[in-house]
Prior knowledge:
Strand order of the largest sheet: 2-4-5-7-6
Organism: Clostridium neuense
Protein name: histidine kinase
Largest sheet: 5 strands, mixed
Enzyme class: transferase
Helix content: 55-70%
Number of helices: 8
Pfam families: HATPase_c, HisKA
Shape: elongated
CATH class of the largest domain: Alpha Beta
Subcellular location: Membrane
Amino acid sequence: MKNIWAFTTFLFIFMFVILIFYHLYYRMNIKHITKQLKEIMQLKDTNQLLTVIAKQRDITQLVNQLNNLMRDVRRSRIRIKRLNRNFRQSITNISHDLRTPLTTASGYVQMLQASAVNEEALEYLAVVLERQNMVKVLLEQLFEYVRIESGEITYGHIPVDAKKILTDVLAMYYDDFYKIGQEPTVRLPEKPCMVQGDEQGIKRVFSNILFNAIIHGKGEYCFEIQEVGSSYVFTFSNLSEPMTKDDLDYIFERSYTKDKSRNKKTTGLGLTIAKEITKRLNGTIEAFYNNGKFSISILFPKIS
Length: 304
């Protein structure tokens, strides 16, 4: 009887020890897999797969499934990169192929305008020229957006006076405001507004926002710069048609436009490009609507 009891006790202790070791190896495998996953997630392009310390059936099956999933994700990523590269190349080719005939067609329309015999013909030709110019702007913005997304366009990070850049851009659009009978309110600080950025990039951001304001705005244009803490805030505001929260949420999305009929001279890419450039210059951009006024605020960290 004592022998049976001793054997049972020994067997129990042995099984308990085995269970402890199994549990320890289980935990070691889980920690090992978790560490590998973190390392793999930090690497953008890697063919590394998961391994196990000890071959435990359930853990091994889990690792095999995770490895299969990672292989599928990598194959999908490669296909997406190839599709994006082909898409960018197609946009580039289309842009180049259409620029020349559009320029030629615009030249002929202008010649017809010079020889038009009545007001009706001039009106029709003006509409044709306006549509051609709209297509040219669309192609240019598509081309620019593709180049920005692909990283082909790079932006410097050097000290620039954003106040001077905004002043120059406002001067560029003086005639446009004059044509619509509007004189914007401009509030600028007396001192330069030095930020770390790229002159041409910031100029493109301001230009796109002003163009959008002229096309969609209803009046009471106001452009100002405020020094808030360690940043400069550039605000562009104007009266606008009513805007919903969805409009504000999607206003910077690619090809989004509130004018669903597309009757206005808009491509839906101007604000998207402005946002992409702002992000690359370490700034932030937001849209607001309050009491009938639409505004866009851009924040750039200031430098002394």
